[in-house]
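User: Teach me something about this protein's shape.
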Amino acid sequence: MPTLSVILITLNEAERLATTLEAIAWADEIVVVDAGSTDGTVEIARRFTDKVVVTDDWPGFGPQKNRALDLATGEWVLSIDADERVTPELAAEIRATLASPRFAVYAIPRLSSFLGRPLRHGGWWPDHVARLFRRGEARFSEDAVHERLVFTPPLGYLRQPLQHESIRDLDQMIEKMNRYTRAGAERLERAGKRSSLKGAIGRGLWAFIRIYLLKRGFLDGREGLIMAIASAESAYYKHLKRLYRP
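Assistant: First, the predicted structure itself:
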């Protein structure tokens, strides 16, 4: 049976990290790269693995995940986030897949919850994410946010979902929106793309129409509406922040 390393990056995830790590305790190796947590995250991680590294900077999600990847020694790598959980069913499917792999990279369907409700519409399901791969066959992009796994096709697909606690409460939603829109504006600037007030409004309106109506986010009830509005605001503020960057 090939060996498996599970890699995570963390920052102040003490509230839910133990649950995440308990679910992957069966792996041959767990690697945690922390960005300077102050809430006990590192101490919790060290209860599950001796491969915990604390960095003194934050290069962005992609580069930080590559740091964790470079520390892995398993033949295969599973990358998860601290707000994600591998169910027993998914764990069994991963082990069965690695016993006789047909692909070098596999995508996993991700079921995300928003304010306590699993979202199955609005483009949130099935959110296939490439996370399981043979070490040496893939790396993460260098993007500060919305990083992706870079690899050579073809891609295999697992069936059991990865549980994702995306947004727990409104405070987290607003804080995350602020971080992601700031990073998105910086990425627009690096790409040489300009924005305008009209363009920001148009992007926001289109995001709402696409998610709530075209992708049937309304079927997820009140939470589907809140999510569509939040997505529209994110699109709007990302381009507005680009407009007002010096």
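Now, about its shape. The longest helix spans residues 221-243. The chain has two domains: 4-166, 169-243. If you'd like, I can walk through any region in more detail.
User: That's plenty for now, thanks!
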